[in-house]
Amino acid sequence: MSALSVLSVASEAFPLVKTGGLADVVGALPAALAAEDVQVCTMLPGYPAVMDALTEANEVFAYADMYGAPARVLRGRAAGLDLIVLDASHLYLRVGNPYLGPDRRDWSDNSVRFAALSGVAAEVAAGRAGLPAADVVHAHDWQTGLVPAYLRYRGGPPAVMTVHNLAFQGQFGPGLFPTLGLPPQAWSVEGVEYYGDVGYLKAGLSLADAVTTVSPTYAAEIRTSAGGMGLDGLLRARGNRLVGIRNGIDVTVWDPATDPLLPAVFEVGQLSGRSLCKAALQARLGLARDPDALVYGVVSRLTWQKGMDLLLQSLPALLEGGGQLAVLGSGERWMEEGFAHASRVHPGRVGCMFGYDESLAHQIQAGSDALLVPSRFEPCGLTQLCALRYGALPVVARVGGLADTVVDANEMALQAGAGSGVMFAPGQQEMLEAALHRTAELWRDRALWRQLQRNAMRTDVSWERPAARYAALFRDVAGHGTLSRAA
Length: 487
What we know:
glycosyltransferase, Rossmann fold, nine-stranded mixed β-sheet, Glycogen synthase, six-stranded parallel β-sheet, alpha/beta, alpha-1,4-glucan glucosyltransferase (ADP-glucose donor) activity, EC 2.4.1.21, 19 helices
């Protein structure tokens, strides 16, 4: 079987630029696919962090005018990734969040910033200026949703579109269309038009040769009117061209036995280091030093989707009997203020850090006893995969990838020696509180808790199986298997 070349196009990649799980997937999947004889080159915008990290960079071609100023395309390496970088300082040379300005609002030119990325990606994939043409293009989320459109209308290799979160769709006014360089026939329901606007994600879903999302359950949920965010009809029409492939995590980065960001290391057969991690976490976030306290961790965006309002409402149930809460995240301002208020009202019981800190994220996974993910919907979730790996029992809503990755420690599971966390019905304060009470009951039986921790830590959360599924899909889409573009 010959090696397959894939151009992965994304708006972020760990460890270069990260706002969420998308970056972790884009950064980790190339190495996992290499084991499947799939060679991945990743294309990113030339953000400051990307440009600073880029080594062995060569200019492969340039543009005299790209949405108002010159731009060039570079090829190089950074953070172990083979990279193609679109160096357009007027579009990407901005500090901070790649999508939001200092006022925490979307950059006003996001439409052209990511149209440029998509259009150039299509030219790269087709082999412009002597670059090797890709066998398949892998586009991620709305920011690259126009890639399948450019490939379909201009010509190029087949494309796979991955939806990491259907809630973010990239919808812009019709006045944008003439600037995109697409033919008139692209302005149609079958193309990029979406309720009179230009729909980036909609275009990708409609024109890609296959669509994936990041867990099997989420793939089913988004085909329904309740979960489809207005795109369920299109997604149902894609039939077997829409598949769910669970995310994994980089188990070399997330390894409690070797993690350099932890005050102590541990593994499934020797958990004593966790107590040191717990004490260090309590000290770092101003929690009372109490080895017997049930410490819940949160590493999350603080948003309605993530159910963080439900958690604020359920704090009395969490704090009953001496529970503690360690929070790392940022999001809606009123939720940040709510958690900050809780830390003032409950000193030593609630500790918060707003923003993102990679070391603290690792320390929460290693030092908390349970990790809370009360999402109303969750395409996959990576934080619960890290929690499983580190022995922090996930307490999760039964939705999307959370339902696919956590085994509820219910009565029958316990009888069978199974269970790796606690699950509850989403979107209801009462159900979250019931889950917190059930978690506290499990915590009181330390021998049982240790068994559940061992179950969790033995769960395969790696990219091995998901990467094999992606590789098979890429070969099929490229015509190396049963699913071809002509089918």
